[in-house]
Amino acid sequence: MSQVWPLFTNIDVDYGENIHLYDRTGKKFIDFTSGIGVTNTGHCHPRIVNAIKVQSEKLLHGQTTILYNSMLDELSHSLQKVLPEKLNCFFFSNSGSEAVESAIKLVRHATGKPNIICFQGGYHGRSIGALSLTTAKSVYRSGYQPLMPGVFVSPHPYFKQYTEEDNEKRTRQCLEELKHLLNTQSSPSETAAMIIEPVLGEGGYISPSESFIKGIREICDKHDILLIFDEIQTGFGRTGKYFAFEHFGVIPDILVIAKGIASGLPLSGIVANKKLMDKWIPGSHGGTYGPNPLSMAAAIETLKVLEEEDLINNSMHMGNYLLAELQKLKNEYPEIVDVRGKGLMIGCEFVAENGDPGTFIAEKVRKSCLSKGLILLTCGPYNQVIRWIPPLTIEKSEIDKALTIFDSALKNSLERE
Questions:
Q1: For the chain, how big is the Rg over CA atoms in Å?
Q2: What is its EC number (predicted)?
Q3: Nearest-angstrom CA–CA distance, 241 and 262
Q4: Nearest 5 degrees, angle CA 55-CA 56-CA 60?
Q5: Distances (CA, A) of 268 to 75, 89, 230
């Protein structure tokens, strides 16, 4: 098997069906990765597959600066129904990184200001502009310096979730550091925007307090700075809400979307107010492929499935159940120092006996789960967190099967009787 990057698994995948993947020998796996939060509707949902088939017989490519396609309006209107009124204008592309690049270009055009503030632990993509905002792991940045100038990094209120630290005190400290940054490194007159994941993804599945997100919003409003929420991984029901910003009572100026929007086909976008979008110089940004007809057909049907099959509520209820069951395992295994999450975006953090990050333990448990037919991923700066991101179609009985495998893997890996 040829490969260009180290693989998390050696599965030679043949096909997928809902929460399961099958390799070419017929072995069945429970997939709790969803393609890193992409297949929210499960693998090959029949309605979405049919929508793609129907569209494939009509048109495969229709470049959007040449041809008008009413599916673009249908998709935009469907999204508008689940978004705040102020987020009413859309620009679509292919990937999350492209969408972040689009947001960078928009805020610089719209404000005439060069600088962007990001937050420690964030992941925003691996193209050069998006990578410049990414601080989740040094491996993403190593060998690519110097990166895009005009980027400043502010602390995130996370160090170790399992310490007895006062979270609200740390939140206040981080907000003060943000204000200090504006006074010492990037003045408001030069700062176009701030960008943050409302729940850190690659950085460790960390959800900050509501007061932190609201504090950022207040600082942005005070200094006429735009606020970007990167909801590439958290969107489309992943956190038990349509979008994670709903947990915090804060609306961004720009919303970045991708992953779950089209159930596996390449589609992404940014959403903002039309007055802001109109400040973009026509023709200054675009692309050949996005949004392509197949991806739009998949996205339109995906939104219908999320609504009609009540998958957002299922994400919330199944997520609460999974979180509670993992908390029980945390009480049994001291190596699990924190279990956290919203909806079906849950992190299980390990620590070594000497207090170091539990990288080795997490990887050993992950590999043991894989050998037993359960696919999980790690995240965090040291890969010390196992993340749980199953399709939103998951049922309680399927969670129980996964938990049984996980418990067995813990016993084997930690040499419990």
A1: 21
A2: 2.6.1.19, 2.6.1.22
A3: 17
A4: 100
A5: 12, 14, 11
The 3-state secondary structure of 58-77 reads CCCCCCCCCCCCHHHHHHHH
275 and 323 housed in the same domain: no
Residue-wise pLDDT tens for the chain (417 aa)? Answer: 444 455 678 899 999 999 999 999 999 999 999 999 999 999 999 999 999 999 999 999 999 889 889 999 999 999 999 999 999 999 999 999 999 999 999 999 999 999 999 999 999 999 999 999 999 999 999 999 999 999 999 999 986 555 666 888 899 999 999 999 999 999 999 999 999 999 999 999 999 999 999 999 999 999 999 999 999 999 999 999 999 999 999 999 999 999 999 999 999 999 999 999 999 988 889 899 989 999 999 999 999 999 999 999 999 999 999 999 999 999 999 999 999 999 999 999 999 988 899 999 999 999 999 999 999 999 999 999 999 999 999 999 999 999 999 999 999 999 875
* Residues 358 and 214 occupy one common structural domain: no
Q: Which of 308, 334, 362 is the last residue of a domain?
A: 308
- CATH assignment at residue 114: 3.40.640.10
Let me know how long the chain is.
417
Phi, psi of 312 (to 5 degrees): -65, -45
Residue pair 120/138 in contact by the 8 Å Cβ criterion: no
Would residue 6 count as lying in a domain? no
CB 392 within 8 A of CB 41: yes
Please say whether the beta carbons of 280 and 110 come within 8 A. yes
DSSP element (H, E) containing 80: helix 70-80
Phi, psi dihedrals of residue 60, rounded to the nearest 5°: -95, -35
The pTM assigned to this predicted structure is 0.96
Residues 40 and 118 in one domain: no
**Residue 1 domain-assigned (yes or no):** no
User: Whole domain around residue 52: which residue ranges?
Assistant: 48-308
Per the structure, the count of domains in the chain is: 2
**One domain for residues 331 and 254:** no
Beta strands in 206-248 (DSSP E): 226-230
Cα distance between residue 21 and residue 340, in whole Å:
26
Residue with tokens 């813990």: 410
